[in-house]
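Checklist before submission:
- one chain only
- standard amino acids only
- sequence pasted in full

Submission:
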Amino acid sequence: DPHGDLYRPLTVTSYWLNYRISGIAPFGFHLVNLLLHGIVTLLVYLVFSRLAAGMRGGADPRALPEIVALAGASFFAVHPVHVEAVVSVVGRAELLAALFVLLAWLTRGKTWLALPLFIGGLLSKENAVVLPGLLFVEDLLAGRVRQRWRAYLPYVGAIGAFLLLRLMVLGPAIGSVDGPFTGTSVFQRILTATDVLGRYLRLMFWPMRLSADYSYNQIPVILSPADPRFLAGAATVILVLMVAWSGRRALPLATMGAALFFVALAPVSNFPFGIGVMMAERLLYLPSLGFCLAAGAAVARLSIAARRV
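Returned file contents:
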């Protein structure tokens, strides 16, 4: 589409390969999505193991990393909010982006390998751009930012190259496609995005009412900060931030999880700029890593406390 604003060649190529191998029947496409989710879950386990091993915080060094990784990856594997990304074929972009981001994260010590993997994520979906932010959160809470700041530069360069390639393919009309915030002010967009962020957080904790469609007017634009929806969203965000900050010493991995959630969600949150959708549960696939890490850390703390009793 010459008037589109999406450039995801690896995702499109995966659909083409799916079609060449299994035809147009839905089964083959769904099977690949399920297999990708299984691989991503394994990578989540490996990433959580490394993060927990680097931030033991005085707990049982033999038990904590394994419990955090196993519990956190288990939450990730079965969390209901992932249904749209895994079951819907269009969610392939989320799965591939997460796959490449996690592979690049695990191989960050080998830039020659991590960088191509990061580029693969960008060519799957734009939200892979969050990888440098995830690495920064890991280094910040481990006190390694000053020693590693130069390691971020290749990723910044890769983002610049990707944006240039995207511009060459799509042309200067990027971002001209109508979205849910067309004709609204920045202030109104931020108010509405706050409500949506609160909804996302509540879905992570209590995914009882899910939807694959938040299209036209399912979430009306908020016009005033006195709107109860904005107040509920802001209260939810503030509560989560306060709990995460207050537990930074007792449960640092939970604080890291909260930071990872907000960083991973930032590009699709409608805060920095408006995107093509107001809300979509598939957008939580990568950010949910943070919630699952925090949940795994809480389970590990309870497990260790039970053993001591």
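Reviewer check: The chain is about 65% helix and 0% strand.
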